[in-house]
Amino acid sequence: MPELVRYHVQEEVAVVTVDNPPVNALSPGVPEGISEMVARAAADPAARAVVLIGAGTTFIAGADIRIFGTIPDREASLRRSREIHARLLALEDCPKPLVAAIHGTALGGGLEFAMACHYRVGVPAARVGQPEVLLGIIPGAGGTQRLPRLAGVPTALELCTQGNHSSASRALAEGILDQIVEGDLLAGAIAFARAKAAAGEIRKTRHLDARIADRQAGLTACAAARAGLRKIARGARAPYACVDAIEAALTLDFGGGCQREIEIFADCVLSAESRNLVRLFFAEREVAKVPGIAKDSPARQIRSAAVVGAGTMGGGIAMSYVNAGIPVILREAGQEALDRGLSVIRKNYEISASKGKISKEQVERALSLIRPTLGWEGFDQVDIVVEAVFENFELKKSVFAELGRVTRPDCILASNTSTLDIDQFAQASGRPASVVGHHFFSPANVMKLLEIVRGKHSSLETIATSLQLAKKLGKVGVVVGNCFGFVANRMLAYYLREAHLLLEEGASVSQIDQALTDFGFPVGPYAMQDIAGIDVGARIRQYLRSIGKTRAEGPQSVIPDQLYEMGRYGQKTGAGWYRYEPGNRAPVPDPLIEELAEKAAAARGLTRRPIAAEEIVSRVMTALANEGANVLAEGMALRPGDIDVIYVHGFGFPRHRGGPMAYADHLGLPAMLAKVREYRQTFGDHWSASPLLERLAAEGKGFYS
Ligand code: 3HC
Ligand code: NAI
Description:
By secondary structure, this protein is an alpha/beta fold. Helices cover about 50% and strands about 10% of the residues. The protein has 28 helices and 19 strands.
């Protein structure tokens, strides 16, 4: 078994190397090893100073996240934290200059170890941060006490409450790093350490009080941070806990502040919020692991692409490719649509430039990567084509037939269809192994989710290429099965069905949206439909009616189709479920919807009634999780975590609640099943418990267990 922490002396400097691939996490044995080797250096007459460095591609990326789930209770958390705090105090008391040499990332506990060193140097590409908040916890090894002392309260508040990484240059400017090393990191760190030893200098972070001396300014910054969090925390608790702990650095001495941090950490690490976020951390990495596909499975290189259709989605997809540096041919059916599509793309880039996010040159460079066309020229050169024409079955089939003729045999043919059968397009193309669904989410250049729809004949190479491509495009690629609506939209149909029924039964559009934004969604279902376009769903329903199907079984509200017939498509037409003033995207409730709801209720013989927010949340969540169970049972999603990742990245499901399947587990599957049965009795047989939900509830299991 390789040593987790190694020791050697070089140029009179003890070099302590952490070697725990892949990210040098502080797994059992690593903190102990660092303590032991630094103590050895302190006693080693051959060493005048010490450098702490990481082997491989990174410094220490933090605590081993797998450990959090094994902490049984508060006492155990307090004990562990006290131990790690004592360990870092001992490091800081090393009698010889101790220098952290940072490459890759120093995150969480990694930065906390570095801050307990006397000095920190890093390569220009190094990044540092306290991302614990993204796991529902606070820095737990003195970070909330040492970071404000090193970098000041505002920086500590920002890094800890948002979990952002800081670049090396910013870290240097803010006092987190003492020097940037160009060239060989170890050589630079040794030279730095020798200079400190020669000057007899040692600086202990815990004794630096200058940056927290202005207590009033610090307390004001904490109050401002709390106020800012009300807008962005969406119900998460950990960001506030970070502020509480940092505030303790202002109101208590170092020891008292550490004690406060230890207590707050214990509260957080045992919370449902932390359990959900840790689960998501691993689920987000697990989605890339697909049976039959290894890390080194053959995949094609995607160097050039074409997109067919320059509408809402085609334009956004083209931007995603361009943003990843991949040139795109953009094809439309007519000049007017092509011009419109290009001008929307230009406008989007210019908005980014006006906000200072990109330069004017970058706008022009991005646009120069797009080659507009009305024909098929150049399609025989590209590595992938993404089809994004209207959601019309026959049209898409004819496009795939054409693509089969005009592209190279090894070109991947992807459809952005929201619902339709990939296998039929595969057949039409004559090259089924290369056909796959690439279901982007609107706006495609912003939303992180990419559903990769595996057809009956999609080859492993096609799927492996899609997974790699998703990463390159900055997306989270999740492989799903080929069923109507795939995973995201299939489940969404149940979410929307319940929302519409609640509306008819007596809730208002703004009340339903409010209940779900209070739950943590960035927008409620009605504001979301107004953004996506009411026409999109209406066309899907038209198609389904033409083949005698409905999206989600049960009573179908007539109101969405009534809005479509009135030309109320949402924000794009100035009215949908809400009204919009010209030039303003703020939704304004419209009494017309109440009138439509009254009529719809009367037609179904319903007496409208007041509905509480709890019922709204409970019904839509139960509908989502119950259908999620069906999706899992049919193998349309590989794991419950895949569904949760889809909902977090595709629809803004609040991360700290983990996703619909984690939500169900948290509630307990027997309780969720009881709700389905209660709703069946009250509302009708369209509420039908998923057999998987019934089985797991009977076995006392959760979706994740
Ligand atoms: N613990 C355990 N495993 C970890 C880990 C950690 N802290 N960080 C990464 N890993 C694992 C991943 O699960 C993945 O495993 P897999 O290959 O089996 O799927 C592998 O390492 C590689 O990770 P990525 O795929 O994420 O690799 P990238 O190169 O894309 O990113 C990274 C590297 C930036 C370090 C990223 O992994 C990351 O952000 N990790 C989390 C860092 C973090 O949150 N640190 C704080 C931990 S909490 C803490 O320190 C508490 C302290 O205050 C007491
Ligand atoms: P859209 O109506 O905005 O754009 C479709 C474009 O395709 C139009 O500009 C049209 O002129 C063009 N087109 C039609 N036939 C063509 C052809 N033969 N060659 C080239 N271009 C052609 O539609 P939108 O919203 O962009 O949807 C496109 C696809 O993406 C649909 O399959 C839709 O279901 C799917 N989708 C839509 C989402 C949304 O939120 N709007 C989300 C995810 C997927």
